[in-house]
Structures are given as structure tokens and as C-alpha cells.
Amino acid sequence: MRHDAIMLWTETKTGEDCEKRHLAMWGSVVERTDDGLVSRPCGEGLYEGDEFWAASIARLKDDPLARLQMALRHLPLPAAFREAAIALRAMIRAKRKAKLPFEDELGQLHRLAAMASLAPYDTLEMTPATDFERIDLRPETIGWNEIVSFTDAKWMAEVWPEPAQHTTASMLYPEVAKASAARYNKMRAEMRQRIAQSFLDNFDEDEIDDTQPTSSEPAKPSPVTTKLSRRTGIFARLFRW
Question: What is the 3-state secondary structure (H, E, C) of 144-191?
């Protein structure tokens, strides 16, 4: 599946954009198999061509720019943030060794860390990229000690003045994370309802034991069949999300 099959997270402008992305990636499709009804994630946006993105990016360890570009396409996955940071650090080290300016790469590393500090993945995914344009995540505002590694912080202290504070986006802008968390919880509840309804819509009466008497007399209770028990198991797992 193409990486551009769905909107990139960095292109999202509204909560609705984020919800559509989530459904395309993590929404479930109910299918009938030999073992009964099963659900699988849609999985859009998780591939590069026909290959899972993590396998593709693993081959780019010697090409930090390509590694960074691929990682940015797969934000806000935690692994994508990690891969982007690794790529940027490699670029910074190369420039430091060559005595070249590296503040642009350092600034990008800081911004990604600041964005990631807003909330865990589920909530962050529901935060439109435009929200980050209206909040201040500059080094002088948020600092860096609380959001980056020791080495990253050392580089930043070499280049930038000491900020008034070192904090996180979640501490500075809790209302942004709160709104995104509410959006996520609402959307997941709606997804559960849709999946449950999809199971019911696909339910065939012939999947239940059909050995019940057909006379007009009241039917005697019969044991639940194995097939029905399997269906009950599916629903039990479904509602333990």
C-alpha cells in the first residue's frame, strides 16, 4: 500500500482529518473466514510501496536524509519519532565533524521532541498538525532538558541561551491534549459500536445449530453448539478493548 494512500499527520488541519486517518489505519474490517467472523485493521498508511514501513526504513541506516524523510511520513508513530531523531543526530554529528552549521537540524530535532512531549500516541494522533502552529514550542519557551537526551541537550546548550524553564508541551498546553483525548475517546466508542453492528449484520442464522424441533410444540432447550461458542468468544474479546 502506498504511503500516501491517506493524509499525512503533518498535513492534518482539523479533528475530522485526524479521525479519518485513524479509521484508515486502525479501523477494523469485518470478514467472513472458515473460522467464522473476524476483524482486521485497515492498515492504510503503514506501508512504503508493498512493504511495511519499519522494514523499509531499516535499510536506510546509511542515508540519514532519506531515513528522516520516511520517518516524517509516518509520524506520529512512536517509532517514527525515534527514527527521525536518529537520522537528525547522524546529520548533526556529520556537520559538527565537518565544522559546518547544524542549527537547522538541531531546531528540527527540538521541535519533534517538543511535539512528542504533548501526549501519548493515541492522543497525539488526534491532534491536528495546525494545533502546533498556534502554540509556542520554541527552545526559549519550553527548554530542552525535559524532552531530549543528554547528548541532545548538551548540543542545544552549546547553541542556544539558557531558557527561563525546562518543561514539556503537556505541562504548558494541557487544554490541547485534553481536547485531543476527548476526541479520541469519542471516536473509539463510535468504532466499537460500528464493529459490533458489523458483526451483527454479517451474522447468519444458519451458523446456529439448526437441529431444533420444527413442530408447533415449544422447543426443548439444547446445548449451545461449538460454533456459537466460538462466536461468543469473538464478542468477549471485542469488548475488552
Answer: CCCCCCHHHHHHHHHHCCCCCCCCCHHHHCHHHHHHHHHHHHHHHHHH
Of residues 239 and 48, more confidently modeled: 48
Contact 205, 14 (CB under 8 A): no
For 32, the grid coordinates are 467472513
> Which pTM value belongs to this model?
0.76
Q: Please give the pLDDT value at position 188.
A: 81
Q: The C-alpha cell of 39 is what?
A: 476483524
Q: Which of 49, 84, 58, 36 is nearest to 208 (CA)?
A: 36
- Give the helix, strand, coil percentages of the chain, each rounded to 5: 60, 5, 35
> Cβ neighbours of residue 15 under 8 Å, at least 6 residues apart?
126, 128, 180, 183
Q: Which residue has the cell 408447533?
A: 216
